[in-house]
């Protein structure tokens, strides 16, 4: 059955079937002439003649070429030599000057008037000129001469001129050559060469103008795959000067090319999708891929993997599923990277069971055509790590054994590190060490991450000495620690106030060539300040600066607090000055430290002045600010001033006092027999939703006892039970002594029995009963004695 192929006037096929025109020079433009016949290549037996001709040209002075009969017989014998024969001779002449003389010799002695025959040797001459040291001037002379001599260049000759001028940074000349070409000669190939030259020179706008003519719907010179490669390389990669198109403009170009059935290669498209995802433009990335699919682009997996990675980082699991579905519908096979991205994201989202389901299905025809994709060790490690992070270490162990037995994959260091980290996280240090021993037995080398995982696990669960011993043991076996190892140990010792060990490890760290980071310095300075070792703290501060770090505000505040606690106010002022010189303004903690110090020394005027300055700097006084002043006023018996500041705290600064602030005032009021005001403050606490604690009640019970206000005490005892505020030994001691003395032991028992569910209170009950029994016995003995 014969089928006709319909061909329109604008179809690519029709243009392909048309005979290609030859060219001649007309009014300074390269034009076509009908019925061209490209010159045949030189025959095999012409090779010896070419060699003879070149030898004669080299050996004979060019003034004698016309009289050289052997040379004339080769060049002008009948039948006439082919253009490619003459071109081959021109190419074989090593010297450009001789090649130019040879071409002029042909011009003067060629028996035909049609100069088209000389186009091919002229092309060879252009190639010779392009290799010259003075190529720029040679090519400019030749191009001008071609118009004077009316030598019609071939398409390749025009292309060579454009390319050579471009490489020589004579792009204006390239543009002139292109502009002077007859429109019929400005083929896709010629335009591709010019666009490449323009892009390399950063002339993006000009290049896009040339391209725009090619992208028109009815263009006679549509873009081809080479055009696409040139544009996508120059614009998507974006490493050439002048490449300033926005991503949106590049996307428009990609889609315009797509309408011409020209699509970016996988690597360029992947780079474009990566740029979009990297800048958070996930919607645009997905739109580009969908549109290319609609245009039937032959897309591959990598750009989809990049999009899936971006969606995964954004936590968009739903869209990831959509992308996978579209891939399958479009016969784009997910690969092991695709599944790795999906499983990794599911694990990060805590959907480990879903990740395990994907892993299970991978070997069961997971591809759209039923092709299996085998999971690799990375995917297994991802799932094992996800299980361990959820506290499912046993399942992780089981998966490792299944991987080993069913897939033939041997666990490596990362596998064991995930499992060890999982067991250490839940405090099963021995299980972690057992896995460490197992990996050594199996010949799997632990690395510094293994070491750091175990050291960190031991430190986090109070086994700091064991961590040090393990570290020393590993060092002896050649597994050296790094900055993370030392940092973990130093911080652990700082947290338990073991400054001696922390400093010793810090010195070891410096000697071992592991430069401490800023975190180590900050923690060590803070611990030394807390321990009151300000000289050592200052020494570490100097080392911090020598290492190229700058103290942060937390570090400065630790030093400020340390010097204030040591009553070294001069040093504290130096710290403030250094902060300001470093361009770092004191914060609320800095001011609170100074206010607390001046309150402690009884200098209320200066403390208030610091607080005013704090407000002037735009910092709002905090609860600790007011708390320090209120506490200091109370300690010095200035209750009125304390209460005024307390009222200002709510009315002026709009800061709600907390339980601690109330406790300071209530305790002070009770000590000064102002129990009624203390009770009023407790009512105020209730009105403002501030919950009293055991300390609050204990202060009140002491004040009520001193004033023998039983009914108020009973009311507060009921409130304690109602609000589930557990009494402590101080509460029981106060109430036992008081209520037993006034014959209200039964009320005390009822009070304690109100906390039946509390183990701690049951112990208090026993203590209370014992106290009552002892007191009753002592009273009976006294009565008998009387």
UniProtKB/TrEMBL annotation:
It comes from the Eukaryota. PPR repeats lie at residues 300-334, 335-365, 376-406, 412-446, 447-481, 482-516, 517-551, 552-586, 587-621, 622-656, 658-692, 693-727. Pfam families: PPR, PPR_1, PPR_2. Residues 28-48 are annotated as: Disordered. Keywords: Repeat. PANTHER family: OS05G0275100 PROTEIN, TETRATRICOPEPTIDE REPEAT (TPR)-LIKE SUPERFAMILY PROTEIN-RELATED. This is Pentatricopeptide repeat-containing protein At3g61520, mitochondrial-like isoform X1.
